[in-house]
Amino acid sequence: MPFIKLGLKIVYSYADVCIAISPMVEKAIIGSGAKTRIVNIYNPVHLETWRRTDENRIRGRQMLGLGKNEFVVLGVGQLTGRKGVDDFLDVAESIPEVRFVWAGGRPFRGLTEGIKRIDERFAGAGPNVINAGQIELTEMPLIYAAADLMLFPSYQENCPLAPIEAAACGMPVIYRDIGEYKSLYKNPYLKAGSTEEFISMTKRMISDKEFYNEGLKVSEQLLIQFDKDIIRQKLLVVYRSLLNEWQSSIMLSASLIS
């Protein structure tokens, strides 16, 4: 670990500017002791890619074997405890009349935490639970479109794309109440502090149409911060400033030589 930290410090310090995708990443760069300029620019989301269509909803439900009128709760992420898979399954167990789908695999294979435990939990889950496994990115718009609500019970994140993609698809998203989001999001977001709160809020989403519509409005507001066009302009400002600095240094060097 000391060698990795030293290596990161050297790499960060070598850069003219470091782009941090979240305040937590900025904090980590500063904590490394690196002497570099840091700019906060979030992960962008191409909203049109994820926008819900009737065709995608039909295809997604067919792909997952879901009925047309079923209420579907979605979870997305690696099959590991850090992502809150166990909590997601606890919520599913408490609401057996609703379908729960988890989409995600194990990119680190045998190095992934909790393989035996999580596999056993899925094997023992009720018929309302579907483990969709790893889904190709090109097919994820279908998976989002098939769902009505997303739970994101992850215990640690920086600037997660999955809940923003779900919001772009037009559904409420309930996050775990963790510190990272308080510094990341500029607009309000739905949050649950415990499994019991996830269960309570999920049940209310199913039964209370007004509460569900409020969740849709929250998702719409969340998206503003991650619009690709806004983020593109911020990146251009950074790139142009670096280019101007480089050109100025070249001109200064040339004048000194002459």
Task: Report on this structure.
The chain is an alpha/beta fold and 258 residues long. It is 52% helix and 13% strand. The chain contains 12 helices and 8 strands. The strands form 2 sheets. The chain has a 6-stranded parallel β-sheet, sandwiched between helices. Helix 6 links the parallel strand 4 (99-103) and strand 5 (129-133). Helix 4 (54-64) crosses helix 7 (140-146), helix 5 packs across helix 10 (195-207) and helix 10 (195-207) packs across helix 11. The protein is elongated, with a radius of gyration of 22 Å. The termini are far apart. 29% of the residues are buried. The model has no long low-confidence stretch (mean pLDDT 93).
Task: Please give a handful of descriptors for the protein shown.
258 residues; alpha/beta; 6-stranded parallel β-sheet; two-stranded parallel ribbon; 12 helices; 8 strands
Helix content: 40-55%
Summed over residues and divided by their number, the pLDDT gives a mean of 93
Structural class: alpha/beta
Strand content: 5-15%
Q: How does the overall form come out from the CA principal axes? A: elongated
Q: For the CA atoms, what is the radius of gyration? A: 22 Å
Major beta sheet, strand line-up: 5-4-3-6-7-8
SSE series: HEHEHHEHEHEHEHEHEHHH
Distance between the termini: 48 Å
Main pleated sheet: 6 strands, parallel
Number of helices: 12
* Poorly predicted runs of 5 or more residues: none
